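Notes, p. 3: input format for complexes.
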Amino acid sequence: MNHNDNPSASNPCDAQPFPPDFVWGSSTSAQQIEGAAAIDGRGASIWDAFCAEPGRIKDASNVDIACDHYHRSADDVALMHWLGLNAYRFSISWSRVQPQGRGAWNEAGFAFYDQLIDQLLQAGITPHATLYHWDLPLALDRDIGGWLSRDIAEHFADYAAEVARRFGDRLASIATLNEPWCVATLGYETGQFAPGHTSRAEAAQVSHHLLLAHGRAMQAMRAQTGTGLGVVLNHTPPYPAEPTEADRRAARLNDGLTTRWYMDPVFLGQYPADVLEHLGADAPRVETGDLDAIRQPLDFLGINFYTRKLVSTRVPPLPAPGALGFTDMGWEIYPLALTQHLLRITREYTPPPIYITENGMANPDVLLADGRVHDVGRINYLRLHLQALAQAIAQGADVRGYFYWSLLDNFEWDSGYAKRFGLFHTDYATQQRTAKDSAHWYREFIATHAKQRGQGV
Ligand code: FCB
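Output follows (457 residues plus beta-D-fucopyranose):
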C-alpha cells in the first residue's frame, strides 16, 4: 500500500484486513462534552477553574455547557447507533461522582453514568470508560496539592475501585488514565493546561504520582471486576529531521521523555536511564516498591495517535515537510508513523492487545446552507490512518479496535471551541448536531466491514 496514494481515487470502503470482531468506535471525554458543570451535586474540576483565569483559553470560553451532553445523552447515543458504532469510549468526571475527590459519593452523578451505560447497551454499543481524562476535582488540587501530592494515588485507587464495583460488570473496559504525559508536561511544566504550573521538577514528580495512581488503581480494580483494565498513552513518534548524530540523539531523548517514560515503568518496571540522567536533580522521588506497584499486568494498551514529531536541532528548527498536509491544529498528517510505531511497540514491549483509543483531526469545518459539512480533509485523514492501521495489523501488531476522536465537535482544551474534531458538527448556540460528510463515510466504512464479516471475508 502506498501512503502517498490519492485517497479519493479509490473506493472509500475498499476491503481492509481488519479482524472480524474488530471494534469500531468513537471517543469523547466528560469535561469536553458534558456541561452541567454545577448541577446535581457535581464538584468543580481544575478545568472549570482554569477557564475562569483570564488568558488561559484562546477564545475565553468555558465548560459550563459545552455540548450539554449531560442532558442529551440519549440523542447522542442515537447518533452513535446511526453511525453503526459497536463501541463508545467516554470518561467519567471524578468530581461528578465524588465532588471532593475523596469522601462522600454523589449518587446523582453515578446515576448519570448508570443510565448512559444502559442506553449504550440497549443500542448494542459496548461502553469503554476512562477514569481520568484531565478533570481533577478542584478540591483535591486546593486541599492537598493535586497530583503533586503522593496521597492522590490512594484517593484515585478508591475512586477506581468504586467505579469498578458499580459498573465493572457492564463496561467492556476501564482505562485508568488518559495521556499522563499531557497531564504532567502540559499541566505542570509548560503551563498550557490546567492547573497551569511551570516547573520541570514538578512535572516529573507528577508523572510519577500519575503512574503510581495507575498502578494502585489497577490493583484496587482487579479485586472488584473481571473487566478489561488498562491505560491510555499518547504517542507522537519523533523522527530526526536530518540524518545527523545531533538530530538522532535529540529524537531519541524526545522518545524517552514522551513514550519510554511511561511505557518502561508500566511494562518493564523501570524508568529509562537516559531520561533520568537528563532530568538530573529534577528526577522524581521514587520510593521502594513504587515501580512494582506501577508494573501491573494490563488487559489492553490504549494508544492515542494524531501525528509525528519532527525533531531538528537547527536554529530555527527545520519545519515538518507535510507532504500530506497539516490539520487545523497545525499537526502534520503522517500516517506512516502509526504503522511504524505500532510495529516498534510490538517488538520492544510485547504489549497486551492494543486499541487505538484516539485518532482524528481538527478541520476548519463549515456548515453550509444545505445542511452539509464537506470535510473532505477528514475523510482523507481517516482513510489514510485506517490504511496505516491495516498495514500494522497485517505485519503483526495485535490491534483490536479503533476509536475516532471525536464523536462531535467539543471543547478542545486551551483552544476552546475554535477547533473542530467531530464526526458531527455541533452548533453551540442551538446544540444542533449535524452529520459531516466524514460521518457518512465512516458509517459506510463500518457497514461494509460488517457486511464482509457476515460473508466471512
Ligand atoms: C488528545 C486528548 C483529547 C483531545 C485530542 C484532540 O490529546 O486526549 O481530549 O483533546 O487530543
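Residues 1-13 have pLDDT under 50 and may be disordered.
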